[in-house]
């Protein structure tokens, strides 16, 4: 039987169609790296040099004494492209671990966003009503605008943005996805 390594799962010759597919998939990768100058530039260079897109990128130090950082990135591609990205990331010297959270099991993904919405009258009231439904917090208010803070899945952030646009959305800032595997075990 032919086995092809794909994250922590293997694929048999009977289901190679899922590995060798032309369908683009969205994957969340967690990359553990040494916290040193130039590492992020090397990771980003890998993507830009090969024409891969990064949809979301977050970076933070996770171990102060060990000088380790976690890069969480969201990218899309065919299964072959995703496998190539993971393999190439693993070859970068300061990279210690590469995990494809999408294939390793259930995950929790969250994003923080700030929305500045200008509005008066009914539009202002509707923006406040929708913010309440989405559990967004008002973190700044003037007579002409609000700044809302919202946390949730990327899909929730997108839905809130779609509703705020016709009500006067004038500015939006997003942190990017932070993700962890579900359950008591640590995969990263």
From TrEMBL:
Single GO biological process annotation from the record: L-valine biosynthetic process
Keywords, ordered alphabetically: Amino-acid biosynthesis, Branched-chain amino acid biosynthesis, Transferase
Enzyme class: transferase
A GO term from the CC aspect: cytosol
Family matches, as InterPro entries: Acetalactate_synth_ssu, Acetolactate_synth/TF_NikR_C, Acetolactate_synth_ssu_C, ACT-like_dom_sf, ACT_dom, AHAS_ACT, AHAS_small-like_ACT
PROSITE patterns membership: ACT
Residue ranges occupied by any ACT domain in the UniProt entry: 28-103
Known pathway: Amino-acid biosynthesis; L-isoleucine biosynthesis; L-isoleucine from 2-oxobutanoate: step 1/4; Amino-acid biosynthesis; L-valine biosynthesis; L-valine from pyruvate: step 1/4
Catalytic activity: 2 pyruvate + H(+) = (2S)-2-acetolactate + CO2
Any single Pfam family the record assigns to this protein: ALS_ss_C
Cleaved signal peptide residues: none
Listed EC numbers: 2.2.1.6
GO MF term set: acetolactate synthase activity; acetolactate synthase regulator activity
Superkingdom, natural source: Bacteria
Binding partners and assembly: Dimer of large and small chains.
Cited function: Catalyzes the conversion of 2 pyruvate molecules into acetolactate in the first common step of the biosynthetic pathway of the branched-amino acids such as leucine, isoleucine, and valine.
Family classification: Belongs to the acetolactate synthase small subunit family.
Protein name: Acetolactate synthase small subunit
Provenance organism: Limimaricola litoreus
Gene responsible for this protein: ilvN
């Amino acid at each position: 039987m032919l086995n092809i390594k794909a994250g922590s799962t293997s694929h048999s010759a009977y289901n190679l169609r899922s590995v060798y597919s032309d369908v683009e998939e969205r994957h969340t990768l967690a990359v553990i790296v040494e916290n040193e100058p130039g590492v992020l530039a090397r990771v980003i260079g890998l993507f830009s040099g090969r024409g891969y897109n990064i949809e979301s990128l977050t970076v933070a130090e996770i171990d102060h004494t060990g000088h380790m950082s976690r890069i969480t990135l969201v990218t899309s591609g065919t299964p072959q492209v995703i496998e190539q990205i993971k393999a190439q990331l693993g070859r970068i010297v300061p990279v210690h671990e590469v995990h494809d959270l999408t294939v390793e099991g259930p995950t929790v993904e969250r994003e923080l966003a700030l929305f500045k919405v200008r509005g008066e009258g009914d539009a202002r009231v509707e923006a406040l009503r929708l913010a309440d439904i989405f559990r967004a917090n008002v973190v700044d208010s003037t007579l002409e605008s609000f700044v809302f803070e919202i946390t949730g899945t990327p899909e929730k952030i997108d839905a809130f943005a779609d509703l705020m646009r016709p009500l006067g959305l004038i500015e939006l800032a997003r942190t990017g996805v932070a993700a962890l595997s579900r359950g008591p075990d640590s995969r990263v």
